[in-house]
Amino acid sequence: MYSKLYNFLSADQIKLNVEMKHHTTFNIGGPADVLVLPNSITDICMTVTFCRENNIAFILLGQGSNVLVRDKGIRGMVIKLGNGLNRFSIAGQEIYAEAGMNLSALALEAAEHGLSGLEFAEGIPGTLGGAVVMNAGAYNGEMKDLVYEVLAIDTEGNFKTFTREQIKFEYRSSVFQKGEYIVLSARLHLKPGSREDIIGTMREFARRRSEKQPLEQPSAGSTFRRPEGFYVGPIIEGLGLKGFSIGGAEVSSKHAGFIVNKGNATAEDVIDLIRYIQEKTREKHEVDLVPEIKIVGEE
Ligand SMILES: Cc1cc2nc3c(=O)[nH]c(=O)nc-3n(C[C@H](O)[C@H](O)[C@H](O)COP(=O)(O)OP(=O)(O)OC[C@H]3O[C@@H](n4cnc5c(N)ncnc54)[C@H](O)[C@@H]3O)c2cc1C
Fold it and tell me: Which residue owns the Cα nearest ligand 1 atom 3?
């Protein structure tokens, strides 16, 4: 059935039975039946049509920097934007970019054009699309402050333009997390600033990241959402769990808010560790920690 994909995609855009550990920053995940790497909005439209006509379920990935794929992998298709779909343009204070544009690269382009607002994005892995879906943020900035319009397509192939209000940005969340739409592109509004100051701020954020975060080990960023009134790292550290591991999954000894893959972690190790941390936090603080990372794939 997947052979029909070759009618509209090139062979290097189609990967059959591919281990998802090669497609996530956690370096974890079993095989997906098929993974497609679109280069254009047309590729996405045709792939979505193909899935609909052949009754194939699909999930979308940017760069897989906020996901944990289960060990049994993914039945159906993964559409991974990866480095495809990355055209952009800058006019005055407005940026238009396709969803596959690397977020840090976009922040650097903005800086080069003397545009301020995206400094916080320096060092956040992933695509613009993933950042919109997650309302990614750091150092008091988030996508919600900048994005004013998003073009998306639904599973029936209908295009829709979302205004800022319709995107319903909330803390690490947006309307797109319902999974009903694929984000294709976004328009951002930034403020004029001094290139040197912007680059200086980005360098400072990069320095803080490498000092505090376990960037040298595979992870999917912060494991949990921040509960009201608490910081997750200090809670986990206070439970004595810094450096605690189950199988190959370890609470980072650099930043307890991160779970890292020591090299051979399975998704089950990570899920067991998440549950263990949740249990201990509930017992001691009566707080329910909710994962920020998206767990996908066959149970
Ligand atoms: C070392 C490290 C540091 C991190 N630091 C931060 C940080 O400071 N702040 C922060 O907010 N996050 C951080 N993250 C998490 C992650 O980088 C962000 O959530 C990022 O925005 C995810 O982008 P992505 O393209 O990789 O999305 P993915 O992880 O591929 O996908 C995330 C979710 O969005 C959906 N999705 C992705 N693209 C689309 C699309 N085009 N249309 C529809 N749905 C889509 C996916 O289905 C999935 O549910 C960090 C991660 C790592 C590994």
Answer: 221
